[in-house]
Specification:
Helix content is 50%, strand content 17%. It is α/β, with parallel strands linked by helices and 165 residues long.
Length: 165
């Protein structure tokens, strides 16, 4: 597992090791130990600009995800396949020795802090939720597609968060 973190906001201190620990557990649960992703932490202003640029929505949001493997449907091992080897054989065109580059997650740290207060959560509980939410988007879960897909994604999100805690 390889996680690249970049923090472009200065107001809120984050613990990179804590974040990597959560992602390591999630990767293990999803049989994605050889996967890579990058995470960018930003403020409201930067997130609004990114949301406008990539989604055409002129407001801030809490998380954006940019899958690296456009055009491919990832088969998440813990959902459809029995083991890691099946996942490696049946997903993307890469060798067993090369990493699976999932993509990029952008998290609005300021919005995460506000939402934690709003939902009565700790900052890291909300940050974990956003990390898992973004990760699932990289695996082609899409809650905006339909009610069914929303329920499917929320269920997987809840399952992972419960098992990580």
């Amino acid at each position: 597992m390889k996680v690249l973190l970049k923090n472009q906001q200065k107001r809120i201190v984050i613990n990179p090791e804590r974040i990597k620990k959560v992602l390591k557990k999630a990767f293990k649960l999803l049989n994605l130990q050889k996967a890579e992703l990058s995470i960018l932490f930003v403020n409201d202003r930067r997130m609004r600009a990114l949301n406008r640029q990539y989604r055409g929505v002129d407001r801030t949001t809490d998380v954006l995800a940019f899958p690296q493997q456009e055009g491919y449907k990832l088969k998440v091992a813990s959902y459809r396949l029995k083991n890691k080897e099946d996942f490696l054989r049946n997903s993307l065109p890469f060798t067993h020795n090369s990493p699976l580059v999932l993509g990029d997650i952008v998290i609005n740290i300021h919005k995460a802090k506000c939402q934690a207060n709003e939902f009565g959560l700790t900052f890291y509980d909300e940050l974990n939720r956003l990390l898992i939410h973004g990760l699932l988007h990289l695996l082609y879960y899409d809650h905006e597609k339909s009610r069914y897909h929303n329920q499917k994604m929320r269920k997987k999100e809840k399952e992972l968060l419960n098992r990580i805690s």
